[in-house]
């Protein structure tokens, strides 16, 4: 049960300093983080899309404490939109955002996050792409869904994320599985109490399947966020049963994880989108990747030992 321990460490400044200073950290971080700047990530976007893949780009850094930092986050995404504009990729390169990075957790955060995200969504629409609102811990979701609903009034292509481990998510999926909606389903990667979330992996997997079935049977556009071969195969079968064509849903996987599977699914004709994170404030994102899979943690531990 290392996952909850690692997730707790993701909020620790002491652990942040320790991990950042560890000699093997950069090797592992580079596996999950595409770069620190827009200049570094643009060639990766071009290479991926040239190879038949699609991408969603995440500027990491949700742990902000000031209004000024929320403005900086907004500006970082606006810079990204400007760089994507010249590539002419349309929805093949979209963006994912965490509203905490836009000030959601600050005083007056709901209104602040909405005000900050709106120009990003507007700029994205102007170049033919869109934005997906990432789900964070359960205390933020009502605000996230309200902002999502407000943005969709003017930008109906705005997507959102739901998490299979939360008890509420099946109801959320039924509400969101409407015409024109874009919904990414993931297992969930935040430390949640047993009062609101399934804690057992088998129960989370069962919930994931139930939710995919709801989304596939609905009128929206499901985005299946998983690296699990079994869940991918089940999702393909549920899409077939629902009569969906290959371009009526997509798979999403993280940059640096199961890259061979990215290529295989795309070669089979599936829409395959790679969640590509970049930026300097990588710690929280990195620790959630370690928590999701023990093999990632072992890879990190070996890197520290061999570089020490």
Automatic annotation (TrEMBL):
A Pfam family cross-referenced in the UniProt record is Pro_dh
Which biological pathway? Amino-acid degradation; L-proline degradation into L-glutamate; L-glutamate from L-proline: step 1/2
Which UniProt keyword terms apply here? FAD, Flavoprotein, Nucleotide-binding, Oxidoreductase, Proline metabolism
Q: Which Gene3D superfamilies match?
A: 3.20.20.220
Q: Which residues cross the membrane?
A: none
**EC number(s) recorded for this UniProt protein:** 1.5.5.2
**Reactions catalysed, as given in the entry:** L-proline + a quinone = (S)-1-pyrroline-5-carboxylate + a quinol + H(+)
Chain ranges of the Proline dehydrogenase domain: 50-299
Q: Which cofactor does it need?
A: FAD
Going by the record, the broad EC class of this enzyme is oxidoreductase
User: What PANTHER family does this protein map onto?
Assistant: PROLINE DEHYDROGENASE 1, MITOCHONDRIAL, PROLINE OXIDASE
State the protein's name: proline dehydrogenase
